[in-house]
Amino acid sequence: MIEARMTDLNYNEILMYLGHHGQEVTPEIRRQILSAAGEVKRAAVPRLVYSRMPVENGEIVGFPMEGNDIRALLRPCREAVLLAATVGARVEQILMRYEVTNMADAVIMDACASVAAENVCDHFEADLREQLGREHLLLTSRFSPGYGDLPMDTQRRMCEILNTSRRIGVAVTESCIMVPRKSVTAVMGISETPQEIRKRGCEACGMFLNCSYRRRGIVCE
């Protein structure tokens, strides 16, 4: 069983969520970001639930999903993993408080909380890859409802099958909003052969802040 874990939040990823495009980050803004990141990390109670399920002809047995993209991802796979993860209700409470008292801080806090949720998913994915490696199996990239042509309402069905309300305290509204909001659902395929992995974005690069390519709206890749 893989346990949920979270490490320090990636400063560059927070900037990405804030819409940073190479402009100067003042010392005051940097302090605000780091303070918010620390507050989110202290408040977060990461939890996750997942299930390995068989795949036949690009579809999860007993859990068909709409869209060509997810079928293409799973077609070479023999199993899939359904994942739901959250950073917990305390982070949601902080976000709601800032939304009432200070919207500027709320925007920064929201970006930090989004990065925290991705942090939990990234660590789960890394731990699962290591576990599958011992079985001589490989893992695809994560694919979440809302990506490509996979409908958002898929996450309601995922939460139902994973019983997230009881197991990790995550519910889905009629409009497909997860509660707490900083929660994630995702699908990953398990294969015996290597599959193309989506590369990390600019936020993982050491030149993120000073990149001349990003200032011109292009990438070096």
Which short descriptors sum up this protein?
221 residues; alpha+beta; two-stranded antiparallel sheet; 8 helices; globular
Protein described:
This protein is α+β, with helices and mostly antiparallel strands and 221 residues long. The strands form two sheets. A five-stranded antiparallel beta sheet has the order 2-1-3-7-4, with helices on both faces. Strands 5-6 form a two-stranded antiparallel ribbon. The chain has eight helices and seven strands, in the order ααββαβααβααβββα. Helix 1 (11-17) packs across helix 5, helix 2 crosses helix 5 (103-133) and helix 4 runs antiparallel to helix 5 (103-133). The protein has helices at 11-17, 27-43, 68-74, 89-101, 103-133, 154-162, 164-167, 212-215; strands at 47-56, 59-60, 79-86, 138-139, 171-172, 178-179, 183-191. The mean pLDDT is 91.
Sum this structure up briefly.
By secondary structure, the protein is α+β, with helices and mostly antiparallel strands. The chain has helices at residues 11-17, 27-43, 68-74, 89-101, 103-133, 154-162, 164-167, 212-215; strands at residues 47-56, 59-60, 79-86, 138-139, 171-172, 178-179, 183-191. The strands form two sheets. A five-stranded antiparallel β-sheet has the order 2-1-3-7-4, with helices on both faces. Strands 5-6 form a two-stranded antiparallel sheet.
